[in-house]
Amino acid sequence: MKKKIALLLVLALILSEISLNINETAGFILYSVLVALCLLSLSHVKSLDETDKLIIVFIIIPIVRITESFITLGLFWKIIISYSILLFLSFYYSIRFKLDHGHKKEKLSLLPFAIVVGICLGVAGNYFFSFNKYSWFIYLIPFIAYSEEILFRGMIQNLAKKSYGINVSILITALLYGIFRLGHGLLFALFILFVGIIIGIIYDSTKNIFLAVAINLILHYLLFVFPK
Hints:
The protein is mostly helical and 228 residues long. Helix content is 78%, strand content 0%.
């Protein structure tokens, strides 16, 4: 039953993100209700199983989105504040749930491969999409890439794998990773979904978070700092 609820939560997150991009107020309300319902459903739980932990980690996404709606500062500070909250919550629950993200030296010999994958995805993204150049983004991208990979691959994919297996865990993570970028358009969100599947496969095969971060890092640089 809990596994079905967690899958419904993924669908609810997707619908809430779509609503947020259509009408910010509606999206804010849906996300707030979602957080409240999740907290109520877990309030009576005395011992958390893997699915309970996954539901808690899912809540990080709406918390970040709700926080963003209250930030009236410029894009630079909005990114710093929202991703700082994302990273803080990710590490807090990683420690609490004793999650191993894969901060290790093993498989780092595959870093050149990860760099090539990142370049290929970045070039493909530049071919199909056009973004404004953000020179100051160069300072934030390492922070963004690391925060995203800790949440999506290090936490969501790892926990989902324990409940649903490798294939479903990669798909769930990629879906949420893609929908997280819906603000840039549906086609770009689908592209990021594809990117998420590629990174998810590599991460599951290597169990090394640094390789996932490297791909994410290069992709962001090619899309937003060095666009065509």
